[in-house]
Amino acid sequence: MKKYQIIEKKLTETTGDVAQVYVYTNPSVEEQRYLVETCQIDEHTLASALDPDELPRLEFEPEHIVMIYKRPKNYSGKDQLEFKVASVGMFLFEEKLIVVLAEDIPLFVGKRFHTVSSIKEVFLKLVYNSISHYVEHLRIIHMISEEIEDKITESMDNTYLLNLFSLVKSLVYYAEAITSNGFVFEKARNLSARIGFDEKDEEMLDDIIVENMQCKTQADIYSNILAQLLDARASIVNNNLNQLIKKLNVITVWMMVPTLVVSAYGMNVTLPLSDHPDAFWMLIGICLILVWLVMMYWRHKNW
């Protein structure tokens, strides 16, 4: 648990007994008991803030306001290009803000936190930063997809296809999370007076809603592009396979033509040219002429 105090319009970490912002990262059993019994936070709501599959929502309790929203999860190399989302719970009281999340991430970073005047502003800027986090991840996904697109045209390996599938799956999760967040932000805007937002806070909330919509559009565009790339890749693989089978069939037919002639002259019966001293070379010549005629016929038919 970390505590922060707003001092001279800056959010400063403190070790004192009194603070305005409390951040609980993967809280222990004792900390959860304190939040439930002392802070009067609903036990189910607290568990929802730590559940990555929980849907975003905005709730009003007698002593505080609850917002659970989705943010991008820290990426790990073992995820194999699969970007995931996590939940964050914010509990806004009259005099303090409690933030609960499952993993440790830098929350109060970026130019937005250079100046802070109230805990409601901290509340909104944390949401704003999560949208920026989505935008950064979308940019990274786009860069990775372009690299895979360059490699996938030169390789028949399925690894790149699986990587693209992981990126498409990540974008679907991101688009769903951003859409769900948008519903919560719209609800907060409609109930801004009940929450206690002033005019400046409402303007920031409007900016958050617009940024979130743009982020959703960007995620949808990237998802559609990658889905079409996967379809195109499947068509390319099928076309390459057809071309390979065609070449193998051509080689097989070429081999059948001389094989037919040689097989006929392998029978134990009287055959033309059987007594001719140059019969072998004449048969080879006949086979080559037949192969050449077949090639000319295929070329004429553009096969």
UniProtKB/TrEMBL annotation:
Keywords: Membrane, Transmembrane, Transmembrane helix. The chain crosses the membrane at residues 248-267, 279-298. Its main location: membrane. SUPFAM superfamilies: CorA soluble domain-like (SSF143865), Magnesium transport protein CorA, transmembrane region (SSF144083). The keyword Transport does not apply. It is a multi-pass membrane protein. The keyword Transmembrane helix applies. GO terms for molecular function: metal ion transmembrane transporter activity. One of its GO terms (cellular component) is membrane. It holds the Pfam family CorA. It is found in: Membrane. It comes from the Bacteria. Belongs to the CorA metal ion transporter (MIT) (TC 1.A.35) family. This is Divalent metal ion transporter. It comes from Candidatus Avelusimicrobium gallicola.
